[in-house]
């Protein structure tokens, strides 16, 4: 029976597809082999938290929620192997129970591990890479239905590329990650004038283990978040009521109502942003790392995020502020700025360079085109690279100029999927169509 799929934001859909829920690598391989033999295409999906159509299926969709178990855990070495459908929130609890933590995380934990690494989920921290840099091994089902185990010593070329593989090289079945002894984060959060935040940006990024800030357009205020790694002996979490008030009531319930009012009455957005900036006041607490890294996100939105050379981010924020003022847009969502260390993954947004990230959001069911295109233009002036799971307008020709190892990745795609079993419209656009395919 054909089914319909919609992503978390509701901006990507697919109808008339066959949905399969495999329970093992062998079942994934059987589906892929049959698809190749019958000329069909296969796309795996995790939580559907990408805003692009990267996971949009044409024929067969692999939903991996039944392939989400712990395969192996060695607390002494910190290595953990999990099935691809394991959601991050469950993985974090498993690790915590074993006395372990992931080194770095993004700010939401609803994604599956395979989806998060495949699209380049990164988090923040000047000395830390994204989630994919913590990967130590992959088991991948290739387009012919064969199974490849790869790591830094075995099929290294495939491993290096597949850590941020966009779903183009095969279906990831299991992921082995390097965790570390569990640690806490001391979080210091509070408002700071935007001009002062930008003036001190490098010092803030370099002197805090994990730093980020949010700026509410139409205000002069940024909300800064400074997280310092510390021992679990130092735990001093927020009282339950305070945590609920800040993270659920204010950040989701109240803010959702604010966004809804702004959608219906755009003229109210400026005063509402000033109200929102004041409502998210100062707080200091210490908690388990994954509880500080991540926050609940229940207000639906669409998002664009660009990675730029870190040295360019301050000027970019200033130019964007000026652009918003001149254009007269009403922007209800804060702009988020984070940082990451350089890595060696071909299609990682931080490949070969220390990076800063600029993320912009708009409510679902609103026209974001003018705003997002302006952000893309500004970021492109410094060679910005779009997050693979977030909205952008670039194609293979433009992306080839941004990634020195782009053709290396495409050559692997052509080698491992010559008949296009894993292709879809998004991959055709961002990677180009393999030779011999229409």
Strand order of the largest sheet: 15-12-14-13-17-18-16-19
State the name of the first-level CATH class of the domain at 184-386: Alpha Beta
Shape: globular
What's the N-to-C terminus distance?
Answer: 28 Å
Q: Helicity range of the residues?
A: 25-40%
Binned strand content: 25-35%
Largest sheet features: 8 strands, antiparallel
The residue ranges in which pLDDT falls below 50 over 5 or more consecutive positions are none
CATH superfamily of the domain at 184-386: FAD-linked oxidases, C-terminal domain
Q: Per CATH, what is the topology of the domain at 184-386?
A: Vanillyl-alcohol Oxidase, Chain A, domain 3
Please provide the count of β strands.
19
Assigned CATH architecture of the domain at 184-386: 3-Layer(aba) Sandwich
Discrete helix count: 14
Radius of gyration: 21 Å
- The average pLDDT score comes to 93
Structural class: alpha+beta
